[in-house]
Design brief:
Blueprint lengths: L7 E6 L8 H9 L5 E5 L15 E3 L8 E3 L18 H13 L2 E7 L1 H6 L1 H7 L3 E4 L12 H13 L2 E4 L2 H9 L7 E3 L18 E5 L8 H11 L7 E5 L5 H10 L6 E5 L3 H8 L4 E3 L15 H8 L4 E4 L4 H4 L6 E4 L4 H13 L1 H18 L2 H12 L13
Parallel strand pairs: 1-2, 1-5, 2-3, 5-6, 6-7, 7-8, 9-10, 9-12, 10-11, 12-13, 13-14
Antiparallel strand pairs: 3-4
Helix pairs in contact: 2-4, 7-8, 7-12, 10-13
């Protein structure tokens, strides 16, 4: 157990205001409340997250103004990062920051961010833990340079965390020692998600419009059953490079206004939509460049909302969704199978409700934020924190 005193925990991430990275902000808020500082590596971003504004953050890495409030700026490095390590002056500033705040553990969000802080943590005598999430344990493994950097990271890190057994096995395959490797899914706060009112025929998808989430395949699957269920609707929350392709498919199948692209929405809106939906869908696949999911947080949120899941046998999804119990899983790219799974649940609302209830029970037991943070604190040797909520079914 680490000896407590001072700030305790530093969290390093590309940024803290990316809409889809709710899991990073959850770590900031709940792992060590009141004893956390931040390091952000994304140049040019800003942060408007009100409850993070009081946290100290290392921003510009220059001798004149190395420290500012996060309300001023959330940038750490005034350059474009091109390598696996900090420049000497940058490392000096990070070591100063870690020492000044008496940091006793650093959690790096994403593998490349962990690589960046190897030297600084060693010099400051701070244990380094790295939390992989998805692309960094799939797509980047195709790069020999990243694999070399990761092997150095595995030697230096005190612990390596993956969100699913599937991705943990990928890291083990390139040399991560089993004794350092831990599986901790990004948990969610079930108290924020209430059982849905189940508006008949209302199907929801939440996620970036990118290759690995394949929103175009979800639309194609819905198009196959649209005529059979004329009152059914597909609501899609998220944005990204595939939006134009999705719009074209909606027009091709004459699905306006039954398929709606809502764009990026705040978490409160996502929760509100989940409280209305009757089915949650996500057709995750391995992207052509190798990018994969870890374990999508939106699926866990939907399960907490008592929504049956229709998804794919992809990465860590089968570790959360029990086929035939909490939803249906089809092979990647199986549009026909996804269509029929949606049709089954639309035809049998009682079955959908039973699967949704089983999903919430599973989240409460295995995938709560409280459970995830307890595991992370144990791995990092941090003291327990009293839970802010009492979860009930």
């Amino acid at each position: 157990m680490l000896k407590l005193g001072g700030t305790l925990l530093a969290i390093a991430a590309p940024s803290f205001d990316t809409p889809s990275e709710t899991f990073i902000r959850a770590h900031v808020r709940t792992l060590a409340p009141g004893r956390t500082v931040l390091l952000a590596t994304k140049y040019g971003g800003t942060c408007s997250i009100k409850d993070l504004e009081s946290l100290p953050i290392l921003d510009e890495l220059n001798a004149r103004k190395p420290f500012r409030s996060i309300s001023d700026v959330v940038n750490a490095f005034r350059r474009h990062w091109r390598g696996p390590a900090l420049a000497p002056e940058e490392q000096r500033q990070v070591v100063l920051f870690l020492t000044r705040h008496r940091i006793q553990a650093l959690l790096a969000e994403y593998g490349p961010i962990g690589c960046l802080f190897i030297g600084a943590c060693k010099e400051a005598g701070v244990p380094l833990f790295v939390h992989f999430h998805g692309y960094d344990a799939s797509k980047l493994l195709r790069s020999r340079r990243h694999v070399r950097n990761y092997r150095e990271l595995f030697r230096a890190a005190a612990g390596v965390i993956a969100p699913s057994r599937f991705l943990a096995d990928k890291l083990a395959a390139i040399g991560c020692p089993f004794e350092k490797l831990h599986v901790v899914p990004c948990g969610i706060d079930p108290s924020r998600f209430q059982p849905s009112s189940r508006e008949p025929g209302r199907i929801l998808a939440v996620g970036r419009l990118v290759e690995k989430k394949a929103p175009h395949l979800t639309i194609e699957a819905f198009a196959q059953i649209a005529n059979r269920y004329p009152t059914a609707r597909l609501e899609i929350i998220g944005d990204g490079p595939l939006r134009e392709r999705c719009e074209a498919l909606i027009d091709k199948f004459d699905l306006r206004p039954r398929v709606v692209l809502h764009g990026v929405q705040p978490s409160d809106r996502v929760g509100a939509e989940m409280r209305r939906a009757s089915i949650f869908v996500q057709h995750s696949i391995t992207a052509p460049d190798g990018d994969m999911e870890g374990l999508p947080v939106a699926i866990l949120e939907a399960m907490a909302s008592e929504l049956p899941i229709v998804s794919t046998c992809h990465s860590g999804i089968p570790e959360a969704v029990e086929h035939g119990v909490t939803g249906y899983l089809v092979p990647e790219g199986d549009v026909n199978g996804m269509a029929e799974a949606m049709a089954t649940l639309l035809t049998d609302p009682a079955r959908a409700a039973a699967m949704g209830a089983a999903g919430r029970a599973r989240v409460l037991k295995y995938f709560s934020l409280e459970h995830a943070c307890d595991r992370l604190r144990s791995i990092m040797g941090l003291a327990p924190v009293a839970p802010p909520h009492v979860y009930t079914g």
